[in-house]
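To the team - 6-O-phosphono-beta-D-fructofuranose complex, inputs and output below.
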Amino acid sequence: MKRVGLLTSGGDCQALNATMRGVAKSLYNELGGDVEIFGIEEGYKGLIYNEYRHMTGRDFAGILTKGGTILGSSRQSFKSMRTPDENGLDKVEAMKKTYRKLELDCLVILGGNGTQKTANLLREEGLNIIHLPKTIDNDIWGTDMTFGFQSAVDIATDCIDCIHTTAASHGRVFIVEVMGHKVGWLTLHAGIAGGADIVLIPEIPYDIDKVCAAIQKRTKAKKGFTILAVAEGAISKADAKLSKKEYKAKMADYPYPSVSYELAELIAQKTGADVRVTVPGHTQRGGSPKPYDRVLSTRLGARAARMIIDEEYGYMVGIVNGETCKVPLEDVAGKLKMVDPNAGIIEEAKLIGISFGD
Ligand code: F6P
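Output:
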């Protein structure tokens, strides 16, 4: 008999349920009545405070296309894990206690970077862990792709597509702000797919004068409108030079809701253009997973099940060169996969005329 826990933690995405279905269906299929699955509720919160439910095959039926997570999720920062809660509860010990109480053989944890760090901590504490890489940001080291990313690319691209028609009608400059505070994968892919003229990402700090020059070049060429895909975490060259402390101080008095509004003001001042900002926000994490993610999730989930059956623990399940693989958690936890400014995709985007404002 195998006893398996499932937990979804951090910001949600479209393919969490599809991935859990992949794990569960494979386990039921291979082990029949010899497996019990427990759903831990609301991420690490449920593990700390002993909130879980016994699940059956019925729980996983019809969820391939369902966005969000049937288990609920919460953000519990890695940093806070070693700090007792307001009642003095040792969170790590509490998580171990729930795991032992349920007599789990393995805990399957679906989440992004922060979640992965806690997963690795639990591994170090002696629990059997398998991590599955979730995030619309695609910033997890050791896997070519995270589930959620392609679905979010689709939504952000749709948004840029819609902006195209209205931008053209009014001859405006439009900024579409795409999710991603630390990395620009989503902005880069949606920007290219949506035919954005300027793409600003955290990995390539921008110079506002270069951004304006790219807009003016289009105006001179009678293009009529310009679309910028801007990551939430896009940063100017000047700000990128600030120390962490200086940048924090600057942001404490930042008068704009986000970088896009600062850019809009500067562009309007410097070029005289009529500028608008559109923020699709959390719609990028919503709705059904796209077919790419359904396939990826099913494969990663099935591979996790295989590893549970073979008792291979302490790994993240990734996909590299089209094949699923197991990556030791200790090798990847805490590492961020960023866009390389010298990568082929950047060079190719520049070749077709996309400006990165650098
Ligand atoms: O990590 C996923 C993500 O959607 C980021 O792209 C975004 O910056 C952040 O989460 C938003 O977090 P929250 O849902 O807590 O506002």
